[in-house]
Each structure stands twice: as C-alpha cells, then as structure tokens.
Amino acid sequence: MKSTITTLLLLSPLVSQMAQGACTLTCPEDTVCYSASISDAADCWNNIPTNVEWKNNTLNTISQSLENFGFGALYHNTGPPYNLKVPVMEELEATKAMVFDNDFQFQEHLQGILTSLLDAHTRYSKPQCYSATLVMPMAFDFKLTETVTNSGAVQSEPIPYFIPSIYYNQYDEQFGGIDAALFSQPVALINGVEVITAIDSWGSGHETRSNNAGARFNAALRSFLYRSVVSCLVDDAGDGLTITMQDGTEIVLDWLVAFTSQFGQASECVTSDVKVESGVKEMQPNRQRVLLNEGLGEAKITHAELHEDRPDRKVVISPEEAQYEISCFVQQTKGDAGADAAEVSEVLVMKVASFSPNSTGYLAAWTGFTEDASRCLDESFDMIVVDVMQNGGGYVCMGLRLLEMLIEDYWNDHTKVEMKYDLPHSTLMDGWIANVNNPDPYIDPDAVEQILNPETQEPFVDGKAYYYPGRNVTIGGVESWRTNWFCLNCKEAEVLPTGWTPKKFVTSDKLIILSDGTCGSTCASFTRIAQEGNKATFIGAGGLWHQEMDVASFAGGFVCQPLYLATMAAQAGLAAFPNFITNQHWQFGWAAWYSQITPSRPVQFIEQEPAHRTGFWSFPHTSVNVSITTSATSTLYDTVIADSISRIAVESEARVCSNSDGVYIGLVSTLSVALVGLIALVVYDRHKRKQEEGGDSAYAALGK
C-alpha cells in the first residue's frame, strides 16, 4: 500500500483499457478469495470474449420486455421533481450496432443505460462470471456537529470520519502498514473532491436505489467503498482512492479485490441457476452471489449489542429470532424528560427488515409475519416507532396488512389502503388477453395477490374487463394506451392473524415511522399510504443534510421478468418470446401505482419529505462490523424516542396553556416551549455523548 503525499490518476487509463493478459486469479469453490492487484482483476473481467449471440440475445430480451415497461413512456420526460429524460429503447437499439472489445465492455455499457433510470426495480446485474467486489479497509462514519453562532444561527453539519471495515485485516495482510491517520481525524477530500460531493456524484452515476438524491446518498454511502462488479459500474474505479485527511495528510489506497471461483470464467456466464420443478421455472439464489453478498441491507443488528445493559428495554422478539423479518422491544420512558407531559411511559420499537419473510408458500409467510406483528402489538405501549430503514419490500399485501394493524381508520375500512394500478398495452398483452383472457395478468390464476375491480371490490369477470377499453393517455410527452384501473386483492391477508384484534391504536403524532429513504417497493407502499393519509409522523435518517429527502424509493408497483413473459407467450400460443441465455439478473417495473394526492402521477415520480430529520448515517451493511452499527442504531432509537417525546410535550403544553375561549396565553406557552426545548437539548447532549462513547468502545473492541 502506498502512503504519504502521492498523486493518483484515477481515470487514465480506465481499468478496462489496461493491457489485457490471461486471467490468473483462481479460487476454490465456496470460498471468497482476495487479490491486491486491480490489474489482475481487470485481466479476468476482460477475459470474457465478445459473443455476438449473447449480446444480441440480451438486447432483444430486454428491448422486447421493455415494451411492457410501466414507465416506458414516462421516462422520455419524467418532469419534476427529477426531470429524467432517458430514451432507453433508442439507446438499446443503437447498442445493437456497436462493436465491443470484450463482453465486459458490453455489460458495462448496457448496465450504464439501465442505471441511468435510477430505479432499483430495473437494476441490471451482470452474469456470474463477474463475481467480484472492490473493497476498502474502511467505511464512512459521519458525525453531526452543532454550534450556535454569534448571530444566533445554529451551524449543523455532518463531518466525515472513517471506521475500519470488516476487510481491515484482509487488507492489512495484502498491503500492510495502513496509515493510522486514516482513523484519527476527519476526512477532507477523496480524489481531490469534498467527501459529500464525491459520494453524491458517484451515487448519481452508479447507485440505483433511489431517484431522490438524499435517499440515494444514504445507499451510496456504503456502496462507494464496496463496489460489486456484478451490480454496479466499475470501469471508472481506477487503481484506488486518494484520501486527504483534515491535517493535509494524503493516503493512497489501492482496491482490494474479493472474488469467487466463477470470476473471469466464460463458462460461468451460462451456468444455469434456473430450477425446473413441476413445469414451473424459478430463479434460484446463486451460491457465489450469496458468498459475496451485494450489500443490499442484509446485515442484521444483534440482540446483545442492542439490548445489553438496558434494563429499560423489554425484548419481545430479538433480531436473531426474527424469522419473519419483524423484531421488537418495549422501552420504558417513565421519568424521562418530557415523558409525563407527553403521556408516554412505554414505547414499542418495531424493526421491519423486509415484507418478504422466508417461508414455504405465501400463506405460511403471511401468517408468520402477521402473528409476529401481533405479538409486538399485544404489548403495553403509548407510542410506536416503526423502523423501515433499508427495507427493500416484498409482499404488497403484507405492507397493507401491517398498516391496518397499526392504524384504526385502516383497520375499520380496508379499502382505504387500496392502491390504484394500471398496465401498459403491448403486443404480448394483446395476444394474452385474446387467447387466455384470465381475469388476472398472471400465469397461474390462483397466484398470490390477484387483482380486483376497485369499483365493485370483486375480481374482474375476465381479462378483457380490465384490459379494455383502456385509457388513452399522454405521459412523458408520449401517447399510449393503458389498462383500466385495478387494485390488488388482499382479502386473504385481511383476516390474518386469525382471531386477532388490536388492543389499542395511537394517534398520528405517536406513530413514528423511521426511514432512510431507501425503504422501497412494498415498503414504499407502507410509507406512502400512511403519509398521504396523514396517519403517522415520519422521521428521515441521514441524507444530504439541509436538503430535501424522500421517505421512500422505487415505488413502481409490481415487477416482471423476461422468463415470466416468455411463459405467458407460450401459454397464449404466441411466437416465442426471448429469454436470457446468459445468467445475468434483471427485472423491470410492470404495473404502475398512482398517488392518491397527485392521481395523474405514478408514486415513483413524486417526492414527499419526512416531517423531521435526524442526523444518522451509521447504516448497517455487510462491509461494516455489526457491533458498530448495532450500537449506533441503539443510540438512534434513544434519540428518536427522546426527540419525539419532546415535540409531543411541547404541543401538549401549548394546549394546556390555552384558556377556555381558545385564546393562547403567550408568555406561559413561550416559557413552556423554552423549558421543553432546554430539556430536548439536554437529552440530545446526553445521547450524543452516549453515541460517541458507544462508537469509541465499539471501535476499541476491534482492537484497532
């Protein structure tokens, strides 16, 4: 590893243009191996030769699939707030005539087109022969500083630091001599650019988790230093990064390459991971992908770090016991500052990691999920905090059912959580309706989450009933035909868990939903519906400080894959629909879901800010030691609880200080606000010191 004052030229030459040699990296099966040479890694990803058949098949499969893309027309011009203009079909067509030196160049080009959509539902992952990740010995750790100026303004700015990543020891073994300055002071520049600017700029061109800059920053915060060759563009990664510390010290760090046995082997591009059972093809998780772990929020918080030495917390379901993706505890707040005024003595904290619980069959998954949710909600509480940070979605009906279990208005009337969808007309769907005419756009008419006629609350009589006459709309400046409106049939979920009734509901100021903005898909349904109905109070974690941040991402509707469309075409007796012959992973947003407050706009292209923000950037990730992020998350819960109680106490005091005629008693109320504000500052300072102490102790535990 190079240290001291050295200049690193990142972009010239690009790693894909390095002199190509044979792939010399080898690794045993079911193992993750490491290389200190980005040049050797480039030899391996450039080792896959151009294959015209693979290229044409891939482009034809994606192009024909995107004729069914729910947002195909809109992407010509999404309008505000994101103003994206991506002529994706034209770019795919132009790619057919391009000549590439090797398959990697083609894969990077294609991935770049689809990445520009900034949509996780349309994320493209390269084939498994590119199973490698570029990693660093550190991860970001932002600390929020607040100072009151002479003018009375409060300076509030996140300051970047580094903490060791889980690759620290491997990096030290490969390179040796990691400069201690890396972890001893704030970071000033990365490659000569301010840290926040560097992360944001990289995220805008590489991170698909959100079209909102604040939420995308939260995702890029981790992926910037953990670059999966399969899942993101790496052609511009260079040899490594030049880090400038606050005191001017420059540290040059080369990339460490983590890879598996498949890396650089052309034969692994076509090894099938398609399981055929009872005539139904299902994509199975690939072992090498699981080994590398693409860092999409799988890292779990731990029971010991979250609750150890916390007698004020009663554990109901620990993170390790959360088979159905829900964990929860009750925190005692009686005697805490502002708790009496806010009438909050017990807070239920629920972590909903996913709406896709791991179980055989959807009904078993739904039953387990709702039963665990009911276990949490059977506890005694005065306020609820629901943490949906990094929740990537799952079963739509599970998100809607949890809303009903939390909110009285929705419990009493299930139709209030129904979402309005439509599908684009296409040649494939025309043939499917003409020849099959199922009342659902599904291969299996008994599949999960069938569709309903929102006017009758009953299934459509056949496919023509939802497909025709349809609606002729202009969206993105493009005229197209779309289906009639429909909603999802969640009646099976609406009776779960069997025989259960909520013991109590809380008001919207005491139902707190905590999001980092990457809460997506079904999780976006969960947050958007409650937010549009003013049924909860939303707190946004992290993001670009002092700039807008959305509470959710990739709220597209529901997704589809080429294999599914190929099966539909076969069942309808239509011409064969193309499907990938290589083993990349890709899907697209099929149905579009529309906003209740802006009904002409798909929800994915509106922006809704949280009511409050909290300075937290210590997000769990596969590259970060779990004890560090769990300790930080524990402190985050304390902060969110304390801040929420303080706000509720202020409002409560204000109501008390109104006379019988509703005239506000200004002096008394002002004193109350000042007092509660002082309490909040004391509580904040206490939690801030606790966070710093916890971070230091967690850091020390690593022995660094």
UniProtKB/TrEMBL annotation:
Keywords: Membrane, Signal, Transmembrane, Transmembrane helix. The chain crosses the membrane at residues 663-684. InterPro entries: ClpP/crotonase-like_dom_sf, S41A_metabolite_peptidase. It comes from Triparma laevis f. longispina. The keyword rRNA-binding does not apply. It comes from the Eukaryota. This is Tail specific protease domain-containing protein. PANTHER family: PEPTIDASE S41 FAMILY PROTEIN, RHODANESE DOMAIN-CONTAINING PROTEIN. Coiled coil: none annotated. Residues 1-21 form the signal peptide.
